[in-house]
Structures are given as structure tokens and as C-alpha cells.
């Protein structure tokens, strides 16, 4: 018996079905069966489902003789299911990476309850991802979105309680979704998005207006007439009013009709002692459409006023901050012993600025260092490191008075560099992908960059830190300005690769639960401008299995994708280290790096340890972003070591010894000579002596 039966009803979704099924097949957790119910779809859904069933024995197809609707299709899937838990996935939605492992872990920890409720996120056809708005932490679970696809239900519980989807019509999942919560003896919650609900531009119920949406009243009428109706009542009213107010679901002509039905529902099932929540529900209780419209208009006016006041307050605060800042620029004295640092658009204390700050404390203790961080990342500031919040009064004060400015990206808010200030741009990686003005030929990756502002920012620099001659040449061309001089000192963040001793490395490995004698492989892919979210291009659990018990895989997702890689506890030899504070520690702890186009490869080369390039989408990446050299050419100086373009090739390299050979060592040596000539463990010292001590 499988742990999960994932049931996918399919009707006229041929453009989405493959992605949906792939999102299940790509799960590192593998104890599942996938049941695709072909609801007599007139397009290619049946053929697609059959193709997947032919490729994977865990996929089965149930074919209905005639189109019956999504409710009947799901019921047919349940009848064919054999798993311990039922999961429902719409054919145009996605199961997020690591979802099944996370659900399995949560169920196990809760003792396999009747029902598990999990979170989801939402996206539209522009790939704009938003949170669900559901609160999985507290409150009544009846308040959560009543859908089939945000819960796991024990199959024996489902069968024993006679749960079923409404066979015909929309809102077919409202009744079983609520009944599962009302009737469950045991229930747990997982505050993690496991499903991505995709709103389609055409063909979806959510934006097809009409009287079909009146069915929501019928569904809640059935529920309110049964056990638990009084508890459900306020949530039922809120859901019905949400449909009434949704312009995508109802035309103006439809709204009075739904209001009349909703008022009848309210009158028939209102619990004794229930007090209407606000003027809209009061109008519903009174059955007055005119009063409801009046309440709507009043609420719209209040919301508009609040929004206007909020905008005005924000603008006023910004003007006051800028006015105070410009006053400081005119009147405040420059502090020759104050330095302001920033890293990765104010995400915390890291990279070259952090290494320079630490060395300045040692060699130039008279320099007070202050980091700029956003309010969202204050928790990432190490204890004892002074900081200011971006946009605050104190931020603008230090920006106006600090003599030294050090950043690896840019300072927020559009500051004005004053005479006497010295700005060191450290950058945050050796460029493989096109940067600066070179990006103009690759608009897919620019995301609305103003290149005139890029040049204005460049004109503020006094020094541009360089890790190697390649970087110096590129920065000079893509950030052209007579204002700055190159500082060819190496990367301060790389000093630790030369100064960290064996005992410290053993300590780091112990913290990461890497046993003595185990090989640690760091998998650290970069982000792609054409990809939303962390979607590894290999089955990580299968990869870890193939490498055997003597290998641990450390997975580091790019920081653009959030605080974790979505692995949960998907495999005992996979470690999700995305949230680890220091990528340098991960490099020190590992025996080899597997990456694609990340600039981490240039830093890792300082360690003189094997680097394996895994580039399954190299052609797409080069076309989308452009690169300065051919990473896969095999030429000394271009390629850091072994190369793989498929999961099978990568697995074979690390399993059979091809990752570390005499040939790959020669490539790595040439790569180090080209890209690490200045790194020797003293880069931060050189920067501090040049910038703060004038040596």
C-alpha cells in the first residue's frame, strides 16, 4: 500500500497537465501512486496521462465513459485509490518541491491523524506568486480555504464517514472539505506551502461569471443543516459574501439574485444568539439589498480614505527623512572615523563587506563600522555588530556623515555622495554572466534596470574591488567611469579558505552532521532569470541514494528563492543548508562542489578541491543571460573540472571517480591561476590598509 494516493482529475487542461504530473514525479519522496482521471476530455489529456502511465508504473489512468464533472472524477479516483492518505491535485496546479516529504513527516510526527491541513500559494498567468492568506498557525481550521487540494485525508476515514465530492456543479469540494474538518477525531496542520494554485487566464471557474456561482449557497445550506452547522455558520457567511463581492464570479445583474439566496440561507440557519458581524452581514440578516449596497459604498469610501492617508503618511515621512538628510549634507561634519557597510541589498552581514568590517576592527579599531539592513533581515545581524535600519532617520544620518562607504551592491534610497566620502564597491562575485551595460543585449534578465541609474551609481565609486584580471577588465568596460580606480586586492571573503585550520573544519562538519570519513558534496546552483522558485534539475533523493552511505549532499538554494530548498526530511543524507549563515563554512566543510553558473565556483577554486559543473540548460542560460566564456569548452582556464549535462552523467562522475582525476586536476589548476591570482588569505588586510590606513 502506498503512503499517498494523489488524484488528478483532467478535463481540457492539456496545456497544464504535463507540468502538474511532473511536479509529482519530481518529488524526492517516492512512496505514492498517481491516479489521473480522464473525464472524457476532448483534447490530449487522455493521451498525456497514458504516456505517463507507460513511463512510470506508479501512474494509473481511470477513464470515464462520458464527461461527468470534476466532483465525479475525483470520486472515481478515490474509488480506485489504494494509498493510506488521499491527496487531490487539480490538473492545472503544481505540487511544490519537497511537499510530499514535508506532509509525510508532519503526519508521522502527529501519529497519522485523520486530516492534515497544509498551506498553499497562488500565482497567475504572469507568474506572480502570492501567499495564500490562510493562517495555519492559529484559529479555527474551518476558516481555511475549503478546497480539495490543501489537505491530506486518511482514506479509511474518508470511506467510513461517507465523504464524497458533489457529483455535479461547481463548489464540489466545499462539503467534503468542511465535513473532514468537522468530523475528524484527530487533525494536524502544516504551515508550509505544498501546492501552487495557478489561476488561468481562460477556462477557469474563478473568473467565469454567471449564475453557476449560486451553487455556493446550496453547498453551505447542506452543511449548515447538519452537525456542526452553528460552528460553521460565520465562516459560511464569509465565504458566500466573498463570492457575492467577486466581480470575476458575478456580473452586476447576477448579484441581487445571489444576495436573495444568501439572505434566505442566513435566515434559515442563523444560530440563536448570533450577532451579525458588521453592516454587510446585518443587511443580509435584514434581507435588504439596498442596505447592503449602501454598506458596500461606505466601506469602499473608508478603504479609499485609509489607503490615501497611508500613502500620504509614507510620502510625508519620506520627504521629512530626505529633507533632514539634505540638511545634514549641508551642515553636519563628515566623521573621519565612521564607515557604513551594506551587503546584498541590505540582507544582513556577509560577503566582502563583512570580511572587511571584521579586519577593520582588528587593524583599524578607531573606525566605527555600521551595517545597513532592512527591517526584514534584522535577525541575521550577528550579536555585537552595530546596524541601522534602511530608510530610518539614523540611516540617513550615517549616510550623510560617514567618510567611508563599503557595499557589494548598492545603498537604498538614492543617497548623494558628498565631497570627502570614499566609496568602495566590492562586488559579490567574478562575472561569468553578462553584467552592467553588457546586459542591454539580454533584456530578459534586466527586469526593468535603468542603465542611466547604473552609471550614476558607478560615478559614485572611488574603488572597484577585483578578484582577478578578468574581473578588472569586465568591470572597466561594463561600469565605465573615470571616478574610480580598480583595487586588485583579491576577495576578502575568500581569506578564510587560506586561514582556517583543520580543527575548525572538523567542528563545522560536526555541526552539519557529517560523519568522519563521509564525503560531503555541496550542491549550490544559481538562480535563473527564466525560472521561478528553486527547481533543482535532478532528483536529489535519487542522487543521494546513488552516491551511497559514505556521501552526504549539502543543498544550498540561491538566496533569491527564500530560506530553504523545500527538502524537509526527504532523505537521510540530504542536508538543506540554504539558511546557513555562512556559505564559506559550507565550502570548507565539503569535499567537492557541484554547481552550474554560480560565481561560487571561483571562490571554491581557492580551496583547490574538485569542482563539478552540472549544466543541463547551458544553451538556454547563455541565450537568456549571456556569458563571458564557454564554461563547458574543456579549455584550461575556462572549465574548472569535470562536466555533466544530465543527471546520469553527474551521478556517474561522483560514483565512479570521474569527479577527481589527473585531467580534472589540471583543469582546476589552470582555472585557479586565471581566477584566484590575488587570493592568499590577506585580501581583507590589503583593503583595510588601503582604504582606512592610507597605506
UniProtKB/TrEMBL annotation:
Alphabetized CDD domains for the sequence: Glyco_tranf_GTA_type (cd00761)
Gene3D superfamilies: 3.40.50.11820, 3.40.50.12580, Spore Coat Polysaccharide Biosynthesis Protein SpsA, Chain A
Main location: membrane
InterPro entries: Glycerophosphate_synth (IPR007554), Glyco_trans_2-like (IPR001173), Nucleotide-diphossugar_trans (IPR029044), TagF_C (IPR043148), TagF_N (IPR043149), Teichoic_Acid_Biosynth (IPR051612)
Pfam families: Glycos_transf_2, Glyphos_transf
GO terms classed as biological process: teichoic acid biosynthetic process
GO terms of molecular function: CDP-glycerol glycerophosphotransferase activity
This protein's UniProt keywords: Cell membrane, Membrane, Teichoic acid biosynthesis, Transferase
Localization, UniProt: Cell membrane
Family note: Belongs to the CDP-glycerol glycerophosphotransferase family.
Stated name of the protein: CDP-glycerol:glycerophosphate glycerophosphotransferase
Species of provenance: Streptomyces xanthii
